Structure formats: structure tokens, C-alpha cells
Amino acid sequence: MARAQRILLVGGGHSHVEVLRRFALRPDPQVALTLVSPEPETAYSGMLPGLVAGLYTRAEAHIALPPLARWAGARFLTDRVEALDLHEKTAAMADGMREPFDFVSLDVGSAPDDRVAGARAHAIAVKPVAAFLAAWERMQMDAAGGTVRTIAVVGGGAAGVEVLLAMHARLAAALGAGAPRFALITDQPHVLPGHPPAVRARIGRILVARGVVLHFDSPAVAVEPGAVVVAHGRRIAADRIVWAVAAAAQPWLAASGLACDARGFVRVDEALRSPSHPFVFAAGDCATQAQHPRPKSGVFAVRQGPPLAGNLRRVARGAPTTAYIPQRRALALITTGGRHAIASWGPFVAQGPWVWRWKDRIDRRFMAKYVPPAGAGSAPAPLSPDREQSR
Fold first, then answer.
1. Residue (of 77, 101, 74, 76) closest to 90 by Cα position
2. Any idea which fold 112-246 has?
3. Are 105 and 9 spatial neighbours (Cβ–Cβ below 8 Å)?
4. Where are the alpha helices (DSSP H) in 54-94?
5. For residue 36, what are the β-bridge partners?
6. CB under 8 Å to 230, separation ≥6 — which residues?
7. Could you report the per-residue pLDDT of 117-134, keeping only the tens digit for each?
8. Of 14, 76, 136, 208, whose CB is crowded by the most CB atoms within 10 A?
9. Regarding the domain with residue range 5-110+249-328+357-384, which homologous superfamily does it belong to in the CATH classification?
10. What is the DSSP letter of 310?
11. H/E stretch holding 141
């Protein structure tokens, strides 16, 4: 009997959790799965603003990866991949080990672009999520102690708007009139570029009603201790600065020799497969589907999970892949701090508590899919004997 094909899943993102679920529901003896992730849990982006606002517990907003891997019969390695050797087909880990593979799939997400001077040292990035949540806990304690009086969020996209409104709601509920003041800084002439004007207008009214100071057409050129420097040398003072600008690629992807786009994201075809290295697949924010580019959004990453699982199963058996063409638009659900949200689909826009309840039901149903049945995969899969020490 032929050896099972080793498929290495790098990163526990939205696409890979669905790959694991599908292999759990339909095991394949021809496939040996391994998941590598630096964290034992992955945050669900749809519930992150609610977690920040205090509407969800950490467990409710995170998917536990080791139980999901066990359910799928996969090994789970708590580690970080730092490079790929595409000639030897090995992944170099942060702990010095090397993990061999026959096929590798990348779902490592993205990070806010911190190339602005001082951003890495003096701002709090919204990704990685674990680090942001730890910083948010400290920020709440400092606000309660009176040492944080102003908070600036840099980035006027959905991530920046939602996290600002979530932080505002949590601190206003806890501290009342003593809550910090907020500012939103963006290089755009309005918030939420890419969203319909009706959505932008509604969000703008909510921000103004909550006393948020809006700085439009203000590209950040530097971050200093206690201030964001924007174009023309203007300084916007803040005790804490949250960095939620457009996504950037992780540098090791392009450094590994994979074909990438101009921004460093892995190029993939309609099968979510690298055109330069056919044994490499990629999905989620770290990838760009060359023929069908879409926004970096959890909505699209979730939709890539099923076709990615199918194509990984096919290549392991030597079968041809199938094409995946993503939908051109997706339902947008933007939370506004409390139990209130705005929905948009093309020209349709609605808002209110009922939208939040609808979103909450969608999110909870999604998360329930990744809780293994009782007793499923109770014994962890053994370590592969061919994992070798890095030299």
C-alpha cells in the first residue's frame, strides 16, 4: 500500500479550520494531515468586535485547534513556520525543527502594515489577535486608573471602525463620563472605503454621535510616544494608538521563492494553487486569487475552505483539481459597539438591534460547527517519525 501523502497545513485560519472539519467528517487513509499554528486557538474575526465590547467570552469567540485536529486525525504542532524550503519540501520552524511535506497549504493571515516609522514600537496592532487582546486588557486597566484619557485608532476600514466602536462601548459602560475620548485617523476622505455611501453615512453619524473626533485625508507618516504624526507635520496626541491599517503580507512568503503579487501575497490560481509551485496551496488573507481578486476579508476566507479541502484531497490521490470562483460581493455585517449592527448587500442597507441578533445567530452557528462531537478524536495522533532536526 502506498504511503499516505503528507499535507502540512500552515496556520489555523478560517480556511484551514474548515479543511480539518471536512477531513474529520470524511477521513481519507491516503492523507496524513499536520496543522502548525503558533497559538492553540484561533479567533473568529466575525466575533472579535463583540469580544472586545464584552458581549462574548474568549471561548465563545475562539476555535480550539487541538481538539479540532484530533477530530480530523491530524497532528497538531504549536509552533511558527518561518520559511519554506521548496526544493527539499520542508518547513523551517521557529523551534529549529523541520517538518517534511508532500503538499503544503498556507493560511497564515496578514498583519497591519507597520512600515510607518515608529508604528511597530509605539502602536498596538490589531493583528496578531492574541497580542492585541492582551494589550486591550492592559488598556482597560489603565483607563480605569486614569492614565489613558485618549485613544486614537489609525485606519478607517471596517476593522478600524468596528474595533473603535467596540472599545468605546466597553469603556463607556465601565467608566461612564470618565471613559477615554476617541479619535479615528484615516488617509481616506471618508470611512469604510469600498462600502456603499449609505453605509458610510450611517457609520459616520454613529461615530459623531459618540463623540469620536474624525481626521480624514490624514495619512500617518510617523508614530511617536503619545502621538500620531500625519501629513504636513500635524501631530494628533493620544495616550494609546491602535493600528488598524490595510493588510500587509508576511515577508517570509515571498522570501521562500513563491510567486507573489506586488504586495507580497501568495498568488494562487482558480484551484487555490501556486502557479510557481503546484504542491503549494494558499487561502485567506495571505493569498491573492490572481484571476479573481477579492478584499482581504474573513467572509471570503471562510468560503475558500470547502474548495481548498476538496482540492487537497484530490491532489493527494493524483486527481485533477477543480476551479473555485468566489462570489463578486458578500453580505457585510458591521457591528457598532453594542448589540446593534448594520447590514448591506448591494443597494440594500438595514440597521438595528435585530441585525445584531441575526448576525449573532449566524456567528454562533458557524462556531458550533468546529466543536467536535463528544468523544470524537479522543486520542492525539502520534508524531511523525520522519520529523528531523534542523541543521
1. 101
2. FAD/NAD(P)-binding domain (3.50.50)
3. yes
4. 65-71
5. 10, 77
6. 185, 215, 218, 219, 220, 221, 236
7. 999 999 999 989 999 999
8. 14
9. FAD/NAD(P)-binding domain (3.50.50.60)
10. H
11. helix 129-144
- Continuous H helices in 156-250: 158-175, 197-209
One-letter identity of residue 56: Y
Q: What are 153-180's pLDDT values in tens digits?
A: 999 999 999 999 999 999 999 999 999 9
Sequence-ordered list of residues with C-beta below 8 angstroms from that of 187, at least 6 positions apart, any chain: 156, 217, 218, 219, 220
Map grid coordinates 485536529 to a residue: 69
Rg (CA), the chain: 22
Query: What's the rounded Cα separation, in Å, for the pair 229 and 219?
Result: 9
* Residues 6 or more apart whose Cβ sits within 8 Å of residue 58: 51, 133
**pTM, rounded to two decimals:** 0.91
Q: Which three cell numbers stand for residue 272?
A: 487555490
What single-letter DSSP state applies at residue 247? E
User: How far, in Å, are 144, 170, 194, 358 from residue 352 at the CA level?
Assistant: 30, 19, 22, 10
Domain-wise residue ranges, the chain: 5-110+249-328+357-384, 112-246
**Grid cell of 233 as nine digits:** 507635520
Which parts of the chain have pLDDT scores under 70? 1, 295-296, 377-391
C-alpha cell at 212: 469620536
Decide: residue 189, CB within 10 A, 0-12 exposed, 13-18 middle, 19+ buried: exposed
Give the three-class secondary structure for 47.
Answer: helix
Distance CA 381, CA 36 (A): 14
